[in-house]
């Protein structure tokens, strides 16, 4: 078949475009996105002014999911608050449980046995994988690619089965206690985790085949929602969003907790800070999390899963409570009056899937915190919208929100 | 040019680049530079008490000279109505060079209508945290560009994280006037008596099992007085 070349004269496209924009009367339209809209991943409302398709002003409105967690925390014992931490970033409840427990343990000055720390690292990384799998799948969906979501959700489902086996719950795990974890890992569970880890890279590769070099996906995400290093730092970005902007800050490396310094892993850093970089960083973080999990499983320490010497803080095992008077009293005191935490104040941040989740605990002694401030990464990460969004097209909103990977449960607390 | 100075908004004293620890020298030089600054007993990170008049100078210095360029948190504490200064503002800064936090406590002037100078011009991240502190504690941040409620609705009359605010809440008119006109509805305090699960003290054994307390009232079942 021969090809025929036809020359078409289109005139001066640029001049015509300039004419058209000069004719626009510059009227602005106010548009509300949310609070109940699929792209907002929860209940976020954006008040925007549009000039044609271009956004000129964006004001996020928060608080639709505000439950007063900090007030509630001041009115209950430390252990009673653990289930509330599930509901902060409800896509990675295990990581929240761990962050909260470590914060309170720092006030109490408890040293944990190695096995407990290893379990915590393991569940944190599993939570990270589960959160990123959802984040990437939904991000693909926001950019118009449905299929990757199916792959990531299949894998996430397997993870939830593992969580269920470990904690008894799929979603709201409430796994940690002050001074340890609720129970030891079940028999044969590590083997199942490791077989999950062997199969996950295949699924990640599939997702990457569908997205990473996908022309449509790149066109929609590259250069969109760029955040410079300076802005990322000034607006208090943390986590993968901060690293995508090229800032090398990972609290697992820089301020190791729970024994992260023992494991070898890389921290992926972006260069441009656009939506595409944020996606790439998350993909790589999943692979690095797998590396950590493998190392934890290979050197899984034996011993206790709770701090035995924390007598007024961690309730003893059930069989001891039922057979010994001393333990029964101890359990009774912890249940009725709460774990006895000494006076002091501690700020602890953990590198959670969404960013640095901080707990500022002010204790005046006793079983109830005087003040508990939750520093939510999504709350800070969303603060850049006012600055970043103007200048983008309306259709970029879905991609920008998807790439920031926030959770309103944590943002509004 | 040092690649880090670009992100820190100023020049870093070269000496600091090689001293990652926050040691006695660091603290002493800081205390020497600012008169209204004192050190406080701490367990995790360096904790300073600073007078509100000095706070913006201190923060600018920490950001530009000492690489504490990441404001991770700003919040407030209600020290109870009876204490001398009722509200204080607490800030946490992080330095990627020192790899450590600094905590700054600063008291608010005036217990009844507390005020504090806004630091959102130094750290844009503080903008939202200050709005939250205003929302929850009623601390007015002077010169804040957009000081309005962030988590509660704009017309909400109370400050929920103050110690004198009850856990159940206070009866408050709904934000939507047109809805109130038709329904007469308001935001009621949560039913708190006995918690969500209660055991009844009378009846047969099976009745005294703990069960959810039904305190939901509808048009048919009126709210108990």
Question: If you had to describe this structure to a student in words, what would you say it looks like?
Answer:
- The complex is a heterodimer of chains A (413) and B (225).
- Chain A is mainly α and 413 residues long.
- Chain A has one domain (69-412): Orthogonal Bundle (Cytochrome-c3 Hydrogenase, chain B), CATH 1.10.645.10.
- Helices cover 48% and strands 11% of the residues of chain A.
- Chain A has helices at residues 13-23, 69-73, 82-86, 93-108, 114-142, 147-167, 189-211, 215-221, 229-234, 239-244, 251-254, 275-298, 318-323, 325-337, 377-381, 385-388, 396-404, 408-412, and strands at residues 29-33, 45-51, 54-61, 176-177, 180-181, 344-352, 355-363, 371-375.
- In chain A, the strands form 3 sheets. Chain A has a 3-stranded antiparallel β-sheet. A 3-stranded antiparallel β-sheet of chain A has the order 6-7-8.
- Chain A starts with 12 loop residues before the first helix and ends with a helix.
- The model of chain A has no long low-confidence stretch (mean pLDDT 87).
- Chain B is an alpha+beta fold and 225 residues long.
- Chain B has 2 domains: 5-142, Beta Polymerase, domain 2, CATH 3.30.460; 172-212, no CATH class.
- Chain B contains 6 helices and 11 strands.
- In chain B, a hairpin with an 8-residue loop joins strand 3 (70-78) and strand 4.
- Chain B starts with a helix and ends in a 13-residue tail after the last strand.
Task: Give the second-level CATH assignment, the architecture of chain A.
Answer: Orthogonal Bundle
CATH third-tier fold name of the largest domain in chain B = Beta Polymerase, domain 2
Number of helices of chain A: 18
Main beta sheet of chain A: 3 strands, antiparallel
How many extended strands of chain B?
11
How many individual domains of chain A?
Answer: 1
Strand order of the largest sheet of chain A: 1-2-3
The biggest beta sheet of chain B reads: 5 strands, mixed
- The SSE string of chain A, one letter per element, is HEEEHHHHHEEHHHHHHHHEEEHHHH
What radius of gyration of chain B results from the CA coordinates?
24 Å
